[in-house]
Amino acid sequence: MISLMSMAGHAMSKPIIKSFSKSGVSIITPDGNTHHLNNSFDNNIGPIIIRDWRFFWDLIAGYDLGFAEGYLNGTWQHDNLPKLFEHLSSLPSQGLANSIGIYAPAKIAARITQYIKSKNSLTKAKKNISDHYDLSNDFFESFLDRSMTYSCAVFEDNINSLDVAQQTKINQLISAAGTKPGQSILDIGCGWGSLALNAATNHSLNVSAVTLSQNQFESFDERIKANDLTSVIDLKHMDYRIFEGKFDHIFSVEMLEAVGHNGVDTFFEKCSTLLDSSGSLQIQVIVVPDDRYDSYRKNCDYIQKYIFPGGLLLSQKILNESADKHGFQMYRSERIGHHYSKTLAMWRTNLESNRSKIENLGFEERDFRKFFYYFCYCEGAFRSEHIDTLQISYKKR
Questions:
Q1: DSSP per residue over 138-202, as a string?
Q2: Burial of 93 by CB count in 10 Å (0-12 exposed, 13-18 middle, 19+ buried)?
Q3: pLDDT computed for residue 41 by the predictor
Q4: 326: domain range?
Q5: 56, 122, 254, 389 - which has most CB atoms within 10 Å?
Q6: Do residues 354 and 142 make contact, with C-beta atoms less than 8 angstroms apart?
Q7: What whole-number distance in Å separates Cα of residue 23 and Cα of residue 215?
Q8: Is residue 97 domain-shared with residue 211, that is, in the same domain?
Q9: Of the residues 71, 103, 135, which one is the last residue of a structural domain?
Q10: Which phi and psi (to 5°) does residue 321 adopt?
Q11: pTM for this structure?
Q12: 98 and 162 housed in the same domain
């Protein structure tokens, strides 16, 4: 039986198809007709195959979030999602399409929810982290490398091993700090502990590490004990903002995406109090271009609604201005976003290879599609340089 939303979508399909005519992507509608939009016949992207007329209703109701919701519900498919998102993220803004995005009711509701979640109080921060990272350690194990490193890897030369590339990234960050054996470091947002374990075992460093995730804490604590490292790794399940101590170096690997716009100053201020006067601060962070930051932070995209509630990508300008305000001077900056597209592609492949395992863990088809879409969405955005990842080194002035 055709639903009312499918009927409404069918009725509204023609003007919507026309409004997105500059996208350069062809569409095959449920009646079997192919609509070549602009130069889509020659762009080699392949068509979006629409299975249900509700697709058009979802677009009106949620714009890009409706587009995503349609994929999660199976109303459309595409044979190469990373390539599709690479193309779409490289397009200039379109007036009518942006108007739909501004006034789409699901977008309005999502922006309000995102605003509330991004306030990042101690309570909200813990819940935001738990909502993502406490899904299941076994689930994350299904697509990450053996060290359980959940951040951009660095692939040197012709290396195609995710395990090797993640350790290369970690060693690169530690090398940039110029650490010496016996020094103390703090890892803020330590995840499952890959950097901390490497620092303690391979670089003879005394490590303090903090995480807000209960699952990560329990898993990492077991790894510390299994490797007999309790004397050199001090793990805390707490918010970094209430942590006390003094350290030679601080590391923060893709944690700043969780602090929100108003949390950037708090981060650098806290790091200033925790860091020794001659120490360094090493961060790895996903960023949006400076000229898109203001419009981006007032929006709510797929990642913020479905994957990282309360999350926000910062810009290099925002980071450097805040760092400068709190007495830090940048001495190194390296773009590594091109490595993230490869990292994400490997996570996506691993996810697909372990689909049956994920189902056996109790995750449903929608859960699988949610993460598959997430990896493809970000892979395409990194390919088109719509977003980037930076390694930035700071020292105190």
A1: HHHHTTS-TT---S-----TT---HHHHHHHHHHHHHHHHT--TT-EEEEES-TTSHHHHHHHHH
A2: exposed
A3: 54
A4: 122-396
A5: 56
A6: yes
A7: 42
A8: no
A9: 103
A10: -65, -45
A11: 0.95
A12: no
Q: How many domains does the chain have?
A: 2
Rounded-to-integer distance, Cα 316 and Cα 303, Å: 20
* CATH code, 292: 3.40.50.150
C-alpha to C-alpha distance for 81 and 87, rounded to whole angstroms: 10
Annotated active-site residue 190? The verdict is no
- Where among 45, 71, 103 does a domain terminate? 103
pLDDT digits (tens, 9 = 90+) for 157-204: 888 999 999 999 999 999 999 999 999 999 999 999 999 999 999 999
Q: Decide the pairing of beta strands 34-35 and 27-28.
A: antiparallel
Q: What is the pLDDT of residues 311-363, one digit of tens each?
A: 999 999 999 999 999 999 999 999 999 999 999 999 999 999 999 999 999 99
Q: How far apart are CA 259 and CA 129, in angstroms?
A: 11
pLDDT of res. 96: 43
Q: Long-range contacts: 44-47, Cβ < 8 Å, 24+?
A: 45/80, 45/83, 45/84, 45/87, 46/78, 46/79, 46/80, 46/83, 46/84, 47/78
Output the six-digit token pair for 109.
Answer: 């509701």
Task: Look at the alpha carbons of 372, 125, 250, 221 in this order and tell me if their dihedral is positive or negative.
Answer: negative
Q: Strand 247-253 and strand 275-287: pairing? A: parallel
110 domain residue, yes or no = no
Residue from 152, 190, 271, 378 carrying the catalytic annotation = 378
Tokens representing residue 59 in the block: 């677009």
207 within 8 A of 181, measured Cβ to Cβ: no
